[in-house]
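Colleagues,

Please find the record for the two-part complex below.
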Amino acid sequence: AQKVTQAQTEISVVEKEDVTLDCVYETRDTTYYLFWYKQPPSGELVFLIRRNSFDEQNEISGRYSWNFQKSTSSFNFTITASQVVDSAVYFCALSEITTSGTYKYIFGTGTRLKVLA
Amino acid sequence: GEEVAQTPKHLVRGEGQKAKLYCAPIKGHSYVFWYQQVLKNEFKFLISFQNENVFDETGMPKERFSAKCLPNSPCSLEIQATKLEDSAVYFCASSQAGTGKNIQYFGAGTRLSVL
C-alpha cells in the first residue's frame, strides 16, 4: 500500500539553526511524484516543491533544500538558518495513481516546526 | 481567479443539521479535489472531479456526503445530517490536469464544527 511517514511530530529549534524534516514513503509504482507543503498558523496549504522519481538531483531554493534518495525511499527537507516565519506544519505527500487512472495525494501526518527567537 | 477560493471559512452546525461548503478552483484548472483534515493532521481524500464529472469518489462516505461541480458555479460539498465526527477542516484543491505529476493548489479550508 502507498504510505507516507513523517516520524517527527514536532521539532523546536532556535532561530538560525538548521533543521531537517524527514519523509519516508512506500509505493508500488516505478514512476511517482513527491511533494512538500507548508501549513502556517493561518491554515492554508502552500505548495513548496514537486519531485519525480526519476530525477535524484537534490534541489535548493534559497534557504530550503531537498534530498531525494530512492535507495532509502526518503525525501527529506532541510531549512538552513531557520527563521521565526518558518514556524508551521510541514506535510510530505505522495501522488497515488489508481488502477482506474485517477490520482490523489497520500499525505504524511506532518511535522510541526517551532522556530524560537 | 488565481487562487482556490473556499467559503465559508468557518461553519458551525448542530448535530443533524446540513452543512454546505463551496470551492471555486483556479481559473483554467479542470480538476477539483476535496480532502478532510481531522485531528492529528490526518488528511483523508474524499472525492475529485474533472470539470463537472466525478473523477474519483472512492473516499466519500456516501450515506451523508455528496458533492457537485456544475458549469459556471463553485463546486460544493454537502453533508446531510452532520455528526460530531464530521468536525474537521475541509480543503479543496485544484490542478490543471489529472495526471499524478500535477500540482494541487489548495484553498484556505473551511473549518466545520459540529456541536
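The radius of gyration of chain B is 13 Å.

Comments are welcome before we finalize the supplementary table.
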